[in-house]
Design goal:
Layout lengths: L1 H36 L15 E3 L17 H5 L22 E3 L10
Antiparallel strand pairs: 1-2
């Protein structure tokens, strides 16, 4: 009987320690979340006026070229992961098919 009550007491002590650990972690994470909420509203980027960038002038924002680029013999023979990473010869090389040149200040987010 004494061994059983000692084991039960040890189990209860472990459970209490686990509960305290979880409560402390929840308290810390809640505090961090609240502190992040007090940062305020994000400031708009002064360089791009919250647009994130400018329309690509080389492809007029389409992301595609009218004339394909010349593909070298090496690129034709290159498997490059079974062709999955090979770019289209019609893809705009300036904006990489995005149709937009990203703002260098905010990296395309529109905010500082």
């Amino acid at each position: 009987p004494e061994a059983v009550s000692a084991a039960a007491a040890a189990a209860a002590e472990l459970q209490a320690a686990q509960t305290m650990t979880i409560a402390a972690a929840a308290f810390v994470l809640g505090g961090i979340a609240i502190a992040q909420g007090f940062k305020g509203d994000p400031e708009p980027c002064p360089a791009c006026a919250q647009r994130g960038g400018e329309q690509c002038i080389f492809c007029d924002g389409t992301g595609r070229r009218e004339v394909p680029i010349d593909v070298s013999k090496r690129d034709i023979n290159d498997d490059s992961v079974m062709g999955l990473t090979r770019r289209s010869p019609y893809e705009c090389t300036a904006c990489k098919g995005a149709g937009m040149i990203l703002c260098k200040t905010c990296r395309g987010t529109g905010f500082n």
